Amino acid sequence: MLKKESVSDLTLTEIRAFNATIQQGNFTRAADLLGVSQPAVTAQIRKIEGRFDVPLLERTSKGVRATDLGQRLYKITRQYVDLDASVQSLINPAGDERSLEIHIATASPLVFMPLMAAFRQQYPEATLKITSGTTDECREHVLARDVDIGLFPLPKPGAGLSHLTFHAHQLVAILHPEHPLAADENVSVHDLIHESLIFSRRASFTQQMVDAAFAGEGLAPSSNILMNVRSDICEAVAQGLGVGFALSHDIRLDPSYSAVPIKEAGQEVLEHLVWLKSRTHLPEIQLFVSMALEMRSRQFGQSSER
């Protein structure tokens, strides 16, 4: 499939153009991302495709998409992003905050928003690109190098990942303030099994915890109300649609509902910063992790003084 040259013969200019085209699915958007003209991008794509005997990209009415070979090549070339970033960090030292751009995927925006705000305050010229998703989606973004850092619960770190524990909270039931259990210190899943339950999508970490809490007691709950947005679940509870679930600090305190810990889910959930070990040297990751360490140290010091 590959002609005489090897992948190592590809230039960074070709790789940047190829990666941007795969990510954007369109030559024009790829050019905008790179800050060059569309003809410059298509010229680099022609050069890289000329090294192979079969197509890397399939042209469609909506743009382009990678062929099987193109996807296989992208798994290799996306790793060159780290090399590119390392070169850029030498050209533009970390002290020049205008060169800082950090891509973040988070499953717990309320938990990590103070950290992102602190980073923004420290580096006001830096660019933060933030994506929200489920825990599994955020983890995949980190592994695929689509983002620099993930912010989400990490029950099983896995090989190749570095992580820093940042926050702890617990699974709670969201109850209407007039519910008989709303003022209790905690609530059992046995008390909730016959309630009208509001579930979130099965792929979410929170829903998996809910399912595990019921299953651990031999219970199989059902729900006729499925919602994906935490704030919508809270509003549904406030309007009397049923009982919802969330991790305690993923929702805001509000008098229109009560958050009561679930007895069978007593173990705290740890929220982490997660990044690839191979990318630890990148300035944006080092600065963001350092900021998290500072915040965590201050929080620990404040709790010790109480």
Features:
306 residues; 3 domains; five-stranded mixed β-sheet; 11 helices; 12 strands; 19% strand; elongated; DNA binding; DNA-binding; transcription regulation; WH_DNA-bd_sf; DNA-binding transcription factor activity
Description:
It is a single chain. The chain has 306 residues and is an alpha/beta fold. It has 3 domains: 12-88; 101-167 and 270-303; 171-261. The protein is elongated and about 70 Å long. It has helices at 12-24, 27-34, 38-49, 68-77, 80-91, 109-122, 135-143, 189-192, 205-215, 230-238, 283-305, and strands at residues 57-60, 63-66, 101-106, 127-132, 149-153, 161-169, 171-175, 198-199, 225-226, 244-247, 258-261, 269-276. The chain is built from 11 helices and 12 strands. Helix 2 (27-34) crosses helix 3. The strands form 4 sheets. It has a 5-stranded mixed beta sheet, with helices on both faces. The N and C termini lie far apart (66 Å).
